[in-house]
Amino acid sequence: MSLNTISLSKMYPANHKTVFVLDHTPYFGISCENPIEFEFLKSRGPGCLPIPPFSKSLWTASFESAIEYCRIVWDLFPQGKLVRFIASDNLAHLINTWSPSQQHLGHITSMMSLIGVPPPVHASNTKMDYTVLHGMKAAIDALSEITDMQQEKMNSEGQTKLMNRCRVICITSARDDESMKRLEEIFLNGLVQQNKANAKSDRFLVIDHCHLVIINTFPVNVESQVSNHPPKNLSLILTTEVHSVKASMVPNKLSSLILQHYDLASTTVTGIPMKEEQNASSSANYDVEIYHTSTAHTAILKGNASDSAAIQTQKENHEYQTVTLKWCTPRGTTGSELHNCTSMYRITPVDVNSRPSLCLINFLLNGRSVMLEMPRKSGGKITSHLLAAHGGEIFIHTLCTARSVLEDPPSISEGCGGRVTDYRITDFGLLMKQNTLLPLKSNYLEKNVTPVAEMKSRLNRLTRYWPLTISSTLIFNLKMYIDPLPSIITKETITEEEVYQCKQIIRNLINLENKHEPLHPLNSGQRVKGQKRDEQYRTMWNELDMLIKNNLHTENHKSVHMCLLECHSFKDEKVELDDALRELDQIGPKKSEIDTQRASVIRATTDSPMSPPPLASIAVSLTSRSTGIYATPRSLLDIMNSQDKSKARPEFFGRSGDSLVAKLYPNLKTENDRGPRTEGMEVE
Amino acid sequence: MPTIILLDVSLSMTKPIETTENFETSPKQLAVLGINAFLDHVSANTKLEFISLMAFSSLYEEKSPFTRDYNAIKATLQNIDDYDKTCLETALHGVNQMVLGEWGNNTACQVVLVTDGSVGIGPMSLKESLTNLIHRSPNNPFPVPFSFPAKLHVVCLAHPNDMCLQRSKPLYQKLIDLSGYDGSISVPEQLNEVGVTSLFHKLAEDIYTSFKGTLKCGNLKSRIMLYPAPVHYTKVTDFDCQTYMVSETIDILGFISVNDIGSPMAVSRHLVLHGVQNIKDPMSMETEIDLTIDEDTNDESKTPSFCVLLHGALKVENMAALVSLGDNWFGFIYSWADTKKKSNLMLTLLVPGSDSVPWLGDLNYLGCTEQFEQCSSFPIRPSEKRSYSQNGVVWIRSAGLQSDIQKILRHARKLPEKTQQFYKELNRLRKAAISLGFLELLLALATIFEQECLSLPGNVHPDCAVQLHHAAEVLKKTQNQDAKFVITPYVANYNNL
Q: Structural domain tally of chain B?
């Protein structure tokens, strides 16, 4: 049960729906009696007459505090935290609805300018029924209305019952505790009545719980008879609290309330170097206070008690604490690495228009980021947070300051495949660039396959035949002969023109072969000196066949394959004995399905106890799919390299050659040439 | 996954037990024996797990910090005194503090509570703590759910049909439920040395299971292990609460430059290690590799691996791979270096959901230019600007109002060149004043303008005085106090003056 209580209050927070009920009765038209003074006017000469003192009205003071509350909410939570405004005089003025289109400051201020200042206190007005109760009644109606998010939740089946929890913040002025108590009771009564009606209706929701916050305000030169009371449960469905504050203190009161209502915390960034307004050559240090979700502090506040006590201070004239963290001048760009962020929240400056705030904001919006440091009692300091803007929004990132369980991890080069030095890193980098993700314009939203799912099948297609290392492929080292065939053949669909292009590439290769021109692999370090030209061609044809066979996506793809089969004759069964022996030597036990007897002959002659090392999983899966005897993803070079270890072989190689002159120790050179250090892995 | 062993050292742990062999022992003695067996199992199988020991009664004490030196813990176990009564709540607060201080709030840990099945009596007993859960104030929170992802394992050294244990079991279960992760309650089959030893062996086996899966990029794949093993994640948002698990197949969906990713919030981070056939902990390879150059390891390190290729390319291009971890759950794989020399493949788990990184947009709707025609670019900007980039009006502190007025006056002195700016700022201020019902400001501003006219130095353009006077007159007229009204410059023909 307790688990449910915790997650229910988390799942159905009161701050989803907030209604501000603002007193717009004639009383709120009176002055706060808190004259505004301008420093710049004082410095004028004695000849100037002082301007008559002026002050905000109670209405201005309460309304501007309320919209500041909204500004903070909507900066930090662009969606899902709804606020409505109701002004109450002789009737309730509904300023906005729950619709997201009306949940922004522009709408509220322009609607408020239509309502204007509270009506004047005239004799003729006394008969009118001016009271905040109209607004309270309208607020209860508003809370019963279903928001888009609630509707969406109600539509999705199989969910637990939706809880309609909400909050009303009423800024008004009451005579004494007695009348305040009456206001609370009337509200509760209205709530109960409304729930009775709601229970019968489909269009309205029963209010499961309402948090009523009443702020009683009055001009600064008046003493109020209304006393504060902390939250108390008036009933199961209503919790009320009363705060009685002077008009000048309403903004501060709302600041401390907003921190509770949305679970926010304050951070003061200290030591921001900023050029003086008057004197650009000197700079002074400033502080900027920001608000954000309180969990951004969890890691630093819950850890070391003495450290956290040292960074928390009471905010002047406010009822909350702020955590002071030091600005750390950024070195270079910080975006180039992925920081270990344990949390990330939007921020908003508390004093949005002050010069220091603007300075920090612009610094961040221009793409720079700032690290925040926390001093440690034990001496030294630690970088605990990162402030950065992403797409015009500023976030605070909590960096991991704790010890890592990944202490002393092994390097990737120590693990499986770590000693292989000829991975096709450049080629894979190219594949990555061709599959770099970007946001799509909205016209893909209606597709029934999500674009990322399409990307997955795309990657599948592009990697049908993709050797991992340079030494396990020949064709990908012959780019100048076969490009752009690999990139065309892996396409989902290919045009007639592209088919022609591919066929042309195949024909060119045939021509080269007929002219007895040797192929020059791109990575000259990989070139096998001892390799015969015709062997080179055979390996190339086999691999090319493998590539195309694995990419028979359409008829056009098939026609490329047909062309290959027509142009080059794969002499399957009609191999000469000598050739077969040689191939067996190269291919090793893979050939066993053809003739086990021959294989055993080879084995006996070479006296090699070693089978080639097991193929990588990818290669195995490819071989199993192929049928032809040449259809192995292992190139000649690959096989030869694997045979390097076998010291007993050179003499056999000489005997198997088709000419009488055989080069001695042909592998010796290879061994030296091997290891393309320039292309090597950068892992250490 | 770091482990805290939370050992009950209350007096009840010393009560004599007669084992089946007529041998007298106590829960405490059995506990020490069991923990030793647990440590032996760990040191034989997963050498590099961090383990700590905390003793508790009505208070708690950190007996051994997190360490890989299990012999140190064993030594400590020999010198544990007996104290008063069991008070679990205080100890669990201690656990929170110890873990947060050491590992922060997003490292998953195991809490192994070793007790005799009695939950204490009186106001600070577990029963009492759990009954008043709902009446907790924010200043006095209950320590569970823990401030970090935690699996709670309760080991009760009591007879399976002990009355006290029967009463405590539901309370322990409630505690585990509260923690939000799967835990366990274990009771030895026989309350003797053999029973306890095998219980602790089994516990060690159960809690140190590694995650094995496959990393795929189309047809290229590698068997992988994740270290530490990821735990499930429960995401609670307004109106929703869902639990997500990491699936065995991790699919690469595409690639994004590290610069574009920013540094999003991570649920956890895991090393992507090559899945090895033997069940030994991969971390222990590090110590073995240089010592034993055996034939098998050698061959394995020379067999090409997709992981190594991926790592190399990600590092060279400074990119990360976007991967799908399960249903609507995403992560990034990238090259990460602990020190300058040792580089590795790292997996960051994002918060579940396709909207977890606002500036990347919906992660389900990403694609590459070759496949999709209409691509925009990162970062995604929200449809509405935030207040700090809107130049809004906030006059709560008079400094804000003062700087807005001074700006208008600065423009006034530079008339007629700044006529446009002067009226633009004036109308902005006027509009804000009207919507705030701050009409007093309009009259005050009119007075300020009139005074400004009087104190203008002689060398300014005559237009200054004319426009200031004109603006003051318009401000004073109440019929102009309409938000839609716009003050326009006074058009004067100086030739006719």
A: 3
